[in-house]
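Final report, closing paragraph on structural work. Over the funding period we assembled a curated collection of sequence-structure pairs, and we close with a single example.
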Amino acid sequence: MFKIENTRKQNDVHLHTGSVRIGTLKTGENVQAIVDETKRRATERNHSATHLLHAALRQILGEHVLQKGSLVTSGRLRFDFSHSDPVSAEQLNKIENLVNSQILANLPVETKIMSMKQAQESGAMALFGEKYDDEVRVLSMGEFSIELCGGTHVHRTGDIGLFKIVSETGTASGIRRIEAQTGEGALAYIGETEKNLSRIASLLKATPENVEHKIEQLLQRNRQQEKDLQALKGKLASQSGSDLTENAIDINGIKVVAAKLEDADVNTLRETMDQLKSKLGTAAIVLASVENEKVKLVAGVTKDATDKIQAGKLISFVAQQVDGKGGGRPDMAQAGGNDPSNLTVALDSVYDWVKQESDQN
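Its predicted structure, as stored:
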């Protein structure tokens, strides 16, 4: 027994490559070729579906669509085609429905050998850049699809059974890719999708019919909770601003605050900084927080102090000490860092830096 693993054409001869599984092979021996009918039928379904898909793409997206590559196996099909934009969900639905309508029509799949000129006159599509012999094999599926093809196909489109698009992606500039399944593979995919939908519905204490409504309710509730959380953070920022004003140190007439706030995002840091600015008068402020081992920094300088202290320079000075960088305007700057272990030292150094800068200016 010789297991064929690949086939290629060399001149006019088809070469089968593989490995001997049982017994031995000798030059000149007669062999009997046996095709795995189950895989062959599945491959035929997927291959014929690519022809229907190609024709459907041209009808729905436009005649600019041309095949740029394909893969057909017993398990799936992949089709690359020229198109500049992602294919929308609505367009994919139309393409899928159009292919399935041709499957339901049970069109005859016919092959004819004819000259290249006759093939062109019949309207058969050819692959750009492909080399063809003087005589070519023309495959037609009713009047819906006529292409040059030498592959194996179903006898009628109804043999495909079912066509289901699995994914649509971009592979290169101006090239899109559709992956799909047919027949038993499509049924298995749909069955698995229904199982997943049922599991999701169960988690939401819903039914597959109203799961979308339940998810919309959850998203709306989540958005409202986020708004409420932001409002609470704003109140905390106001409270933090009041507390930090008491810790401000006067350096050459500038009230300086350098502090770390727990569980604060960048918006909270900026809101707290604005609170401090309005309460302290002439001020230079650096606020920090740590989240997921990352340092967040904001610096603010009131406009009447920017001739002596620049927020951009101040934030850079602090950020460098926590393995980070940043910048901004003279009155407002922002930065990030990767080393929270040195944050306390970096914040403590702000006061000496402000004194040095203000003394020089």
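The radius of gyration is 35 Å. The longest strand covers residues 163-172. We thank the funder for supporting this effort.
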